[in-house]
Design goal:
The chain is α/β, with parallel strands linked by helices and about 400 residues long. The protein has 13 helices and twelve strands. It starts with a helix and ends in a 15-residue tail after the last helix. The structure holds zinc ion.
Amino acid sequence: MKNTLSIFLSCFLFVVFNGISQLAQTETQRTYVLKLKASDSFQRTMIANTGAAIDFINSDYVIATAVLEEKNKLEKMGLILEDLTSRTMQSMTFPSEDSEYHDYSELTKALQDLHSEFPQITELKSAGRSIEGREIWAFMVRGEQDPNKELPQALFMGGHHAREHLSVDTPLRLLKWLLAEYKKGNRKVIDLVNSREIHMIPAVNPDGLEYDISTNKYKMWRKNRKQNHDGTYGVDLNRNYGFGWGTGGSSKNPNSDTYMGTSPFSEPESKAIKNYVESLKKIKILLSYHTFSSLILYPWGHLDNKIPNQKDHQTFVKMAETMAQWTGYTPQQSAELYIASGDTCDWAYGEHGIFAFTFELDPRDQWSGGGFYPGDEILDSVVAKNTEPFLYLIGLADNPHRALDFGIGF
Ligand SMILES: [Zn+2]
């Protein structure tokens, strides 16, 4: 009896203490959505340097997500115009109405089905495993049957950030569209498929994707699911790449939404992308889909300066402006928003000379468009406006400088 009681008591106390420490942890790890005063890139960089993640930019304010410590810093700086946290949380319900989006098992099945339907011209393999052991799927389309013939390569990626589900489903739908058009006999698509190698990694951060939808409410989760040394979770994969890593606009605080990790490529997900890109010997084009804000971004992100190679810079600008015509997105150098270091595109261009773009897909803003959670009814229109840029990038994979030879709208 005594033993049973003491076991009962110690279990009870364990549960209570555990509950208290979890509550404390939950409070420090809680994410706040803040409207902050900022009217130029200098002020936005000051905000980014606190570790807060800027999600939306207007002419005189930004919307950012921050953990408690960052919120306190911003408060001291006198920048908080409004705490929007409760407003944002209210609009999050379980996505039964968002069933068009793919969770990880649906994504896996969709890719397997596509490969079974087009076994001759596609390949499905794993680029590596996430922290929690999920395969990071890489899908390849290649019409040319001679394996010795080297073809120009383009890589499209989505889902670096967990809550950006649209960035997973957009490339997936583009892939489905491409193969359906190939089957239908679309001449332009057939020519591209036969003369290029098209690579796609739609979900770079599968653990985060699953975590964000694992309960009846979206969690507004951004990072991967690494357990950090202090018990907090997650590294910002788009601050973990190894070019200019840790030089601003990312955080050393493991609890922060923009935590850079302990070293460049410390995360299995970013390491997998590094290895995958470096296995492609003819890659000249990379596009990393994110959400939201309707932007087309090119390097640098970690420096205000233009990239030093003038011809490359002109090419980036020309390509971004051309793709802006189809999408209605705003083209600009990434650092014009705010400094952010350790992202995919700075590394891909800085280390390998790849013409690497970030698309911040729809919506343009948080309040009229739903921010990170715009609903699945947006998918058709986003995919439609992103189809031409997709084909354009694949077309230029042999030599992106050719973009300079065409008028905007090629
Ligand atoms: Zn993102």
